[in-house]
């Protein structure tokens, strides 16, 4: 049985969700801690007790984004399974994440907050690279097993991510299109697998 959350934990979560809402609506620079407190239904003192600065609050939002990516997209290489089976599982997990409204809202906040801050943009790119490392590890393992042709794992991983995001991330982020339906996800995954394996499978 899961223990009930403490009041302080509930307030912290309310502050984070309020910050996501306000950052998304008004942008990082315009949003004030006062506004976040009002939206969260807590005092400004409570906000500062949890997060000493707006930058630290933004960093917490970023951590939630990276955690959601890692939790859903980690996959290990299995010599006994076909490459297509393994990659299909990985890519479908990625698409399910990209279809999640909370993830998309977090991503919109993160992208908007980095537009006018090179420092935040560098941080975001660096952390994204860390979280997408699992695919490169899988590609290296498949290559070491002789099942992929010689390739640059980083380049190949970016190709895979790029093909998915062209349909299931950037249209939703930039044009507010709805997430892909299940049949659309399957079409994107199978087409991506066809191209990747035709190019790289040994």
UniProtKB/TrEMBL annotation:
Superkingdom of origin = Bacteria
- Please give the start and end residues of each transmembrane region: none
Identify the DNA-binding region of this protein by residue numbers: 32-51
Record keyword Nucleus present: no
InterPro entries for the chain? DNA-bd_HTH_TetR-type_CS, Homeodomain-like_sf, HTH-type_TetR-like_transc_reg, HTH_TetR, Tet_transcr_reg_TetR-rel_C_sf, TetR_C_Proteobacteria
Q: Which UniProt keywords apply?
A: DNA-binding, Transcription, Transcription regulation
Give GO MF terms, alphabetically. DNA-binding transcription factor activity; transcription cis-regulatory region binding
Domain (HTH tetR-type) ranges: 9-69
Protein name as annotated: Transcriptional regulator, TetR family
Source species: Pseudomonas chlororaphis
